[in-house]
Design a protein that fits this description.
Length: 322
């Protein structure tokens, strides 16, 4: 890290969408209408959710995206201002801000999501080049795959050029050329994304290790496979550490958990924590988020995460190393 790179600073490239969340007992079939039990509207999008998670976790956050000149774009700007996030959001006239349909199962809290990126779907390499100085001054750079791959790749390239830690959340899963993996200090897929990237079906931690080995062979520095209620695995050339999930209460909604993990992990790395401590912090943050409704609104504060970490430390929770 250069002298100019600020401890605690995270730059995130991704999309904002307004989440339209419907709760019901089940998904309707094609051609069927069913009654829902609740509806909510709020800020979302993987990149924006991760930015909110990192900001609430104490990081200085710069978020780069595109939005439309519409009501959803105004919600986005108000969200970032409220959270203290520095927004680098170009407004695209005549194109809608993104939106997401989220179905949440009333019984389990599990979800199914349709995302339309809208204006953020026009992000490109030029948007990244416009914030190169801010990336260069950060400690951690994060991106995902809801915006065009070319933008994500350019972000990883610029961060690598300036010696910034890169965190790549390959979601939603899609085919990727192998040359993107060496740009990743950390890759954070869930089990289905890891399986799609490696061809290794994942049913347990040992499967996750096999998938992580494939990712290491492709050139990533470390793979972190998130396993939902099964915890998370960090696997690199020197260690393989599995951490159980944090149980923080009744599960209400899981839609923001992966974003919470990645945002929390990035924030912890940015303030200088080692990867295992950062993974533990991300798991605790995610464990709190699933007890609350919404995606960005479910993200806890730094004090809340530290309280959970303290309680688990006192109870003797340990990681498993192999």
């Amino acid at each position: 890290m250069s002298a100019q790179q600020a401890s605690g600073r995270v730059v995130i490239l991704g999309i904002y969408v307004t989440d339209l969340t419907f709760r019901a007992a089940r998904m309707p079939s094609i051609g069927e209408t069913i009654a829902g039990s609740a509806f909510a509207m709020g800020p979302g999008g993987k990149g924006s959710n991760q930015a909110v998670a990192a900001a609430r976790a104490g990081a200085q956050v710069v978020f780069c995206t595109r939005i439309g000149d519409d009501a959803f774009g105004s919600i986005a700007q108000a969200t970032w201002a409220r959270e203290g996030i520095t927004a680098r959001a170009s407004v695209v006239p005549g194109v809608a801000t993104g939106a997401a349909h989220i179905f949440v199962d009333d019984t389990t809290g599990m979800n199914a999501i349709i995302v339309a990126a809208g204006a953020a779907g026009t992000l490109g390499a030029a948007d990244v080049d416009a914030i190169e100085a801010e990336i260069a001054g950060a400690r951690v750079f994060v991106t995902q795959l809801e915006q065009p791959l070319a933008a994500a790749r350019r972000g990883l390239e610029v961060a690598r050029k300036h010696g910034v830690i890169t965190v790549f959340n390959p979601a939603p899963a899609m085919p990727l050329d192998d040359d993107i993996f060496p740009l990743c200090d950390y890759i954070t897929p869930n089990e289905s994304e890891a399986a799609a990237l490696t061809g290794v079906p994942i049913a347990n931690v040992d499967d996750a290790r096999r998938a992580a080995d494939v990712l290491l062979a492709k050139g990533v520095g470390a793979a972190i496979v998130t396993l939902g209620e099964g915890g998370a695995l960090l696997h690199d050339a020197t260690q393989s550490v599995w951490l159980p999930a944090f149980r923080c209460g009744t599960v209400v909604e899981t839609a923001g958990a992966g974003d919470g993990f990645t945002g929390g992990f990035a924030a912890a790395l940015a303030r200088g924590e080692d990867p295992i401590a950062a993974m533990r912090f991300g798991c605790a943050l995610a464990g709190i988020s699933v007890t609350r409704a919404g995606t960005a609104p479910s993200m806890p504060t730094l004090a809340e995460v530290n309280q959970v970490l303290s309680e688990y430390s006192e109870s003797g929770q340990t990681a498993q190393v192999s």
